[in-house]
Write a structure and sequence with these properties.
Blueprint: E1 3-6, H1 12-29, H2 40-51, E2 55-62, E3 65-73, E4 87-95, H3 104-118, E5 122-128, H4 132-140, E6 144-150, E7 158-163
Parallel strand pairs: 4-5
Antiparallel strand pairs: 1-2, 2-3, 3-4, 5-7, 6-7
Length: 165
């Protein structure tokens, strides 16, 4: 059974490694190669996020292994597509590629939706348009496109999605 808990100080490096592995697979599937190993700057970004009390970092754990991570922002640390609304930004959700389609991502998403609903807030996320797997995942979980986009890598945009409370 997947257990969701707050990320602990000191787990930033492990989360950077998980994130790098996950994004290397989905970007690669979309024709954009990225490193599967994080560099020191990448690791430091994750260390800071885990310790930033304005941002929530939750991990999915099976047995004693971290198999997924979700980062959310209800405090305006990251830009929002609608600054005039109460929004909770899903900064990122990443699952170990070998655990995709096993319920880990769904467990993390259920926690995100619960947090957004408790805040009576719209959930917001940007998804790389070539990440068709992620787009299907969000749509299955009740997210809809909001008509926003921003430039992304390899000439493909990030497209905005919302989840209503």
């Amino acid at each position: 059974m997947v257990r969701i808990r707050d990320a602990a100080p000191g787990e930033g490096d492990a989360l950077a490694e998980l994130h790098a592995r996950s994004r290397a697979v989905y970007y690669g599937a979309g024709g954009h190669d990225v490193a599967a190993l994080p560099d020191e700057e990448y690791r430091e970004t994750w260390r800071k996020m885990v310790n930033d009390h304005r941002v929530t970092v939750l991990v999915a754990v099976l047995d004693d292994d971290i198999v997924g991570v979700i980062t959310l922002d209800a405090n305006g640390v990251f830009p929002t597509n609608a600054p005039h609304e109460t929004r909770v930004r899903l900064v990122g959700i990443f699952v170990e590629p070998g655990r995709w389609s096993s319920g880990v991502g769904s467990a993390l998403m259920a926690r995100f939706v619960s947090i957004a609903r408790q805040a009576d807030a719209v959930g917001e996320v940007d998804v790389w348009e070539r990440n068709s797997r992620a787009i299907r995942f969000y749509e299955r979980h009740g997210w809809t496109r909001d008509g926003t986009s921003r430039p992304g890598p390899a000439g493909a945009d990030y497209v905005g999605f919302v989840h209503l409370p």
